User: Fold these one by one.
Assistant:
Number 1:
Amino acid sequence: MRNGAGNLVAQYYRAGLRLVACWAVAGCSGSHEPAQTSPTPRSSVAPTANVPALLGKSIDGLRSKLGAAQALPPNYSDPLSAIITASPTGKTDSLSAFRVGGLILVASYDARTRQVRDLLVLGRHEDSLMAQASLRAGARNYLIMPVFYANKHNHLLGLRVISIGRD
């Protein structure tokens, strides 16, 4: 009788484990979760300018390649100008704006040496700016930094592209 009772307990135990396993499988089947939809593919944006090819040029080289500089956009204020564009002598860099391939580029350069320090590609959408300007996030010869409005910290002003001098 002892063996019969032990077998009966073992059978109940195994049946209970099966029942718990079935509940676990049913509970994790995703039947109670909202339907997963695949993300909609982004429309591809064709490159319209080759900004990396403009890096390392002097302001005169940019003017010869892109044409005459244009007026800076109305109410343009670079939030990083106080930090980045201040030269060691205390004078600020000069700025010139160019229109290329539907983009507005603002070049920051040293007026004395005429060397361009960085280019700011103006726009609101990082992905489309990267595509239009032919920029790659992992490039070895330049850095890309998002620049936000000074008074609207979550609104993109554009992308600052800084050449990295590789030896």
Number 2:
Amino acid sequence: MNSFWKNKNVLITGVTGFIGGNLAKNILNFDGNIFGIIRNENPNSYLFHEGINKKIRLINGDLSDQNFLLNTITEQQIDIIFHLAAQVEVGVGLINPFLTFETNVRGTYNLMEACRIAKKSGQNIESIVVASSDKAYGEYPIDKMPYRETYPLLPKYPYDTSKACADMICNSYSIEEYGLPIIITRFANIYGPGQMNFSAIVPDSIRSALGYSIFEPRSDGSMVRDFIFSNDVCELYMLIAQELSNNPEKLSGQIFNAGSNDPIDMKSLIIKIYNKLENSKDLKVVLNKMEGKKTKGEIQHQHMSFDKVYEYFDWKPKNSIDEGIEKSVKWYRKILNK
């Protein structure tokens, strides 16, 4: 992988997100040139915490501006694109569906159209990797789990619908008429160092168990989810982009799911984190608050399989949930202590 990334011009949308920052850091280790699109600087992001921002080229702009995207892709002679930018909050989607659709749908077709025009003008874009979500599938019964790439998309809520729409738009740009080399990825819940969105359950639980906040559960903990560690995701993104570049005829238009193949209910996850930090006192309070608590706009049972990516690329996650939590706790101890 080392020689492939050397001097590649890589564009990352959503570079200030925690996966964007982790991915930039990983590609820099292989001497790639990173260009990140930002609307504004976020000093609390992983990108700035780790000083990665000083090693890449940040370009101020917005996904709603198609000309800006086209100019960025052509002027910087971009080889590889990771489209990670999105409004990712399920709750925000319920409160403000318009914002969610504008960001996730309009932002995606603007980027795809800019890529189409750039390719038509002669630029060689080798790979476009699009970050979708397991929620694009909508809700299936437990006996249909894990999600399979062949399942029809049945979204119900605004966030889920926005990701499903974006996926179909990307697929339409991978057809023969346009020939863009696109792969859509639908991963389980990603966690790990750099996740500063404390509405997510792993960082929220760790921060609270460390005594920096009070955990407020949103449900009774019965919902089942799948989790995948951030560095595993970054390695898979890079592998997919490289393989797509080497074999676009075979891989363009493909969809790949990835998870741990080991789902867990939210109550068990919270218990695992609080026990890891030896905080039984606060755990009892949290469990009492969870009793009988219901939530809206959330799918009850979701988990993913990495069977297809293993078949195609011989990939599987390296970090178990226990290993990932241990690494996450170590990072949050350091960062929250500051």
